[in-house]
């Protein structure tokens, strides 16, 4: 059975959020057709069913428990610390996620190699939290 379509109002709210977060972080949405809309739909669905826009690109053993942490609430910790978007929602002009600030052993670095940040003066408001994030990534993988 396919999941219920999110309400258009929720979709519109998420589209506005994405537009403003792109501007704030100096990123852009993916140039590939349908990529952005699919991620927005996943975020809107989670907002309606869980109350928060939990990242739709991850697996969680317990979604309801996961929303009690802020780690994967969009814009997630990896985005706010490293400017890295797992879902390819916030990317550079070529549709590549920024990996420049990720630790070397992070999956994003291993998949995409080194992708420089075209707008280093923007985004990463939680950049000082990298040490805490790395402890969490080891101890509470999700
Ligand atoms: S990876 Fe992070 S920034 Fe990207 S869609 Fe998921 S929660 Fe949002």
Please specify the SSE layout and strand pairing.
Blueprint: H1 8-25, H2 35-50, H3 63-66, H4 77-82, H5 107-112, H6 130-139
Helix pairs in contact: 1-2
The structure holds iron/sulfur cluster.
Report on this structure.
By secondary structure, the protein is mainly α. The protein has one domain (8-139): Ferredoxin thioredoxin reductase catalytic beta subunit (Ferredoxin Thioredoxin Reductase), CATH 3.90.460.10. It is 42% helix and 0% strand. It has six helices and no strands. The protein is globular, with a radius of gyration of 15 Å. The chain starts with 7 loop residues before the first helix and ends with a helix. The mean pLDDT is 95. Iron/sulfur cluster is lined by residues 39, 55, 57, 72, 74-76, 78-79, 85-87, 89-90.
Bound molecules: iron/sulfur cluster
Say what oligomer this is.
single chain
Compute the average pLDDT. Answer: 95
| Helical content band | 40-55%
Structural class: mainly alpha
Distance between the termini: 26 Å
Number of domains: 1
- The residue ranges in which pLDDT falls below 50 over 5 or more consecutive positions are none
- Main sheet specs: none
Q: What is the annotated CATH architecture?
A: Alpha-Beta Complex
How would you name the CATH homologous superfamily? Answer: Ferredoxin thioredoxin reductase catalytic beta subunit
């Amino acid at each position: 059975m396919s999941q219920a379509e999110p309400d258009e109002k929720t979709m519109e709210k998420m589209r506005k959020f994405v537009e403003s977060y792109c501007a704030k972080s100096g990123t852009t949405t993916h140039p590939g057709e349908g990529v952005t809309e699919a991620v927005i739909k996943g975020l809107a669905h989670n907002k309606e069913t869980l109350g928060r826009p939990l990242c739709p690109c991850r697996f969680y053993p317990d979604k309801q428990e996961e929303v009690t942490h802020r780690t994967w609430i969009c814009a997630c910790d990896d985005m706010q610390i490293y400017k890295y978007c797992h879902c390819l929602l916030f990317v550079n002009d070529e549709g590549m996620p920024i990996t420049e600030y990720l630790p070397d052993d992070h999956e994003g670095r291993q998949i995409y190699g080194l992708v420089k940040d075209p707008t280093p003066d923007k985004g990463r408001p939680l950049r000082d939290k990298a040490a805490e994030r790395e402890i969490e990534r080891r101890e509470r993988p999700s």
